[in-house]
Amino acid sequence: MKRTALILLLLASIVTVAKQPNIIYFNADDLGVMDVGFMGRTEYRTPNLDQLAAEGMVFTEAYAPAANCAPSRAACMSGQYAARHGVYTVGSSERGKASDRKLIPVPNTRYLPDENVTMAEALKAGGYKTIHLGKWHLGEDPTKQGFDINIGGY
């Protein structure tokens, strides 16, 4: 009995639960690579971002998957290019009077389809708590696509 207890105690001490890293993902419209202090910019003061960058990871080899906000956000959230998820603009792509348009609007999905698995849903399945802050423009409510809390985004 003592031997079994000792073996179990040793095994329990060997097995450790890996602590999940904290993840803070920023998706900012119109933020240039040189618009933050940690990239060398001195005109703008970004002490909190600078501290996060110093203590965490910064990915600098990336690009926006689309030319405007909603399709880029949809791509980053779903892992799909606009041609797959169908979001090309915020809202309808048919804006203004038809006679004034220079281009024929492409068919546009106004919202990221619910069946698309988002980054938030994947993180939630991995045991993370998720929060969305700011604009969403990918559906009625970010909490319907994996976020536990939504502040300001629709």
Structure commentary:
It is a single chain. This protein has helices at residues 2-14, 47-55, 69-78, 82-85, 119-125, and strands spanning 131-133, 149-151. It has 154 residues and is mainly alpha-helical. The chain has a domain at 23-62. The protein starts with a helix and ends with a strand.
Summary keywords:
154 residues; mainly alpha; two-stranded parallel ribbon; 2 strands
Instruction: Give the distance, in angstroms, between the N- and C-terminal Cα atoms.
Output: 61 Å
Q: What is the overall shape? A: globular
How many helices in DSSP terms? 5
Order of helices and strands: HHHHHEE
Rg for CA atoms: 22 Å
Q: Taking all residues together, what is the mean pLDDT?
A: 85
Short account of what is shown:
The chain is mostly helical and 154 residues long. It has 5 helices and 2 strands.
List the helices and strands and how they pair.
Elements: H1 2-14, H2 47-55, H3 69-78, H4 82-85, H5 119-125, E1 131-133, E2 149-151
Parallel strand pairs: 1-2
